[in-house]
Amino acid sequence: MDCAISSGGLLIHTHKDWPCAICRPWHTTESRGFCICVKCAHRLIYAVEAGVEGSRALLADIVDAMVILEAHLLSRGSDVN
Hints:
The chain has helices spanning 38-49, 53-56, 59-76; strands spanning 3-5, 10-13, 34-37. The chain is of the alpha+beta class.
């Protein structure tokens, strides 16, 4: 498992060839979920810390999915970055 889905439907993944709605939006398709890479998830967290209001709406979903993903990767001895 190199991805995790938050309770709100946000999928965060570590794959460089998977779609990301932020850094590779041309690869995304319309769906009920939202898919971002782990690097962009970290960037959104930094944006919230910097006070960017638009990013705050996703914070709960980002944290939810990142906790799941990081716990899994740490149990395998992998790095989330």
